[in-house]
Amino acid sequence: MKDEYSGNAEMICPVCNSKIFEYDDENLKGFIKCLRCNKIYSRNALLKANKKNIPVEVNQIKNKVASKFVNDFKKILKKNVGYNKKFK
Ligand SMILES: [Zn+2]
User: Fold this and answer.
1) How far, in Å, is the centroid of ligand 1 from the Cα of 48?
2) How far is residue 87 from each of residues 79, 80, 84, measured CA to CA in Å?
3) What is the pTM of this model?
């Protein structure tokens, strides 16, 4: 049964990012339960969630937003530094 795990496309729990699930191999319409956060998914819901929320993609978007924020913050910082210098 261990081969069953490694052979399948890897599923990740969209709630806690765990890869360990409990499910019934003989019942494909059964539910899949995340063993870390105990959330229960239908097989389809979990598949959809994994197609939408691939963690790497999410991180890339986050990094883009973060770097934009850092750039904006630097601009603000520069303005403030220039402003402070006038007072010295
Ligand atoms: Zn989970």
Assistant:
1) 15
2) 13, 11, 5
3) 0.48
